[in-house]
Structure formats: structure tokens, C-alpha cells
Backbone:
């Protein structure tokens, strides 16, 4: 699987300065789009470099190729750079091994030098998601990087009910882009349930209600340096 990077020097501004960067680390294709697709679009629209790393590919053969195309299309729609740290060679994150998983995230952080990392919430009900969250927490232990946990992708689970975000991102202006990025994942595939697009929309509206906007995405703070960026020393 090929990484996807937009044309030009991704880490610099037109004037040659360094762009702020955010790293998104997820277990599977469509995880990022479900939980923070609007946030990614919000960031890239403001000139932030967003790199999204997908750690595993649950399908094989034609299904894997199709899902890879869907993910590449989503990257183009939302404006992020796509990375496959394990080249899609693992069906589950658990297949990678915890030490190798942390090393992969270490390399991503060294490459991207992000101000923030967005990944799965540590209390997610999916085992692969929890492993990814643990790897991201371990990889950020020695650097001043803010770490945020994303909402569980499955809305009809106890984990979703327990998820209590402290940070909300208004995605009202970007919900159409998020919908375009997710639309192919709603396609039925043999052996896999299609993504419930209506449930994603309902969750975004729910978090919008909590935060006083039409649509929003919620995040929990796992680790932050400073208060709203005011006290951070980079």
C-alpha cells in the first residue's frame, strides 16, 4: 500500500516556515473519518498539516483493495496525508505486537513532529482500539505532545455511553466533507457490516447539542501541556 502525500513540501508554509501539525493514529480504515473527520477538515482548512496513520487492514484481496481506495479518497476529500506504517500487512492491530506498535508510532512522531496526537480513547470497547491508544500514550511519554482520545466508533455499545468528552470541535462547516469521505464506507461488503452513516450523523448532532453548535465531534484529554495553548512551552 502506498502512502499518500499531497504535492508540495507538506511540512512547510508557502513562505518556508514550518506548518503546525497533527498526527491521527487509528487502528483501521474509516476509524478517523467516523470520529474526527470533521475535525481533520477543520484543521486542514486552516493550514494545519494532518497526517493520518492506519495501522491495520481487516480485509484481504479485493475487499482490501476496495477499502484502501475508499481511504485514499477520504484523504483527498479531507486534505490529510495518509500513512500505512505496516503497509497494510496486518489484519488486526494485535498481530503487530505491542513493542513493534509503539516503535511504529515513535517513528511517526519523529517524522511529523506534531503538536497534538489524536487516537482512540483508552476506554474504547474494541480491543484493537485500546491497543492503539496504549501505543500512542507510550510513544508520547518523552515528548511535549498533547494527546486526545476520540469517541468509540460503535454508538450502540456501553463504551460509547461512558465516553465523556471535555473538548468539542464545531464541524458544522465541514459536515458535508465528512459525509463525502464516509459515503463509500457505507457500501455493503461480504462478511462486513456497512458503516451506519445515520448513526455517525446522529452522534455528531448529539455532540453539537452538548457544545452549542449544530454538529460537533468530541475528544477526551489524555494529556495536555498548558491551558488552551496559553501556557505551553514548545
Residues:
Amino acid at each position: 500500500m502506498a502512502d499518500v502525500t499531497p504535492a508540495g513540501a507538506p511540512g512547510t508554509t508557502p513562505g518556508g516556515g514550518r506548518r503546525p501539525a497533527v498526527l491521527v493514529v487509528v487502528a483501521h480504515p474509516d476509524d478517523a473519518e467516523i470520529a474526527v473527520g470533521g475535525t481533520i477538515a477543520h484543521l486542514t482548512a486552516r493550514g494545519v498539516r494532518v497526517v493520518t496513520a492506519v495501522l491495520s487492514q481487516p480485509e484481504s484481496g479485493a475487499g482490501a483493495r476496495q477499502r484502501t481506495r475508499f481511504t485514499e479518497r477520504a484523504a483527498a476529500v479531507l486534505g490529510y496525508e495518509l500513512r500505512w506504517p505496516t503497509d497494510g500487512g496486518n489484519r488486526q492491530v494485535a498481530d503487530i505486537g505491542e513493542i513493534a506498535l509503539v516503535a511504529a508510532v515513535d517513528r511517526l512522531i519523529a517524522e511529523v513532529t506534531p503538536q497534538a496526537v489524536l487516537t482512540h480513547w483508552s476506554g474504547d470497547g474494541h480491543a484493537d482500539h485500546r491497543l492503539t491508544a496504549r501505543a500512542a500514550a507510550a510513544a508520547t511519554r518523552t515528548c511535549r505532545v498533547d494527546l486526545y482520545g476520540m469517541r468509540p466508533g460503535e454508538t450502540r455499545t456501553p463504551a460509547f455511553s461512558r465516553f465523556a468528552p471535555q473538548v468539542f470541535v464545531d464541524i458544522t462547516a465541514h459536515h458535508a466533507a465528512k459525509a463525502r469521505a464516509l459515503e463509500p464506507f457505507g457500501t455493503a461488503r461480504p462478511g462486513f457490516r456497512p458503516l451506519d452513516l445515520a448513526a455517525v450523523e446522529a452522534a455528531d448532532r448529539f455532540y453539537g447539542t452538548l457544545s452549542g453548535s449544530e454538529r460537533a465531534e468530541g475528544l477526551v484529554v489524555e494529556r495536555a501541556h498548558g491551558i488552551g495553548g496559553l501556557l505551553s512551552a514548545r
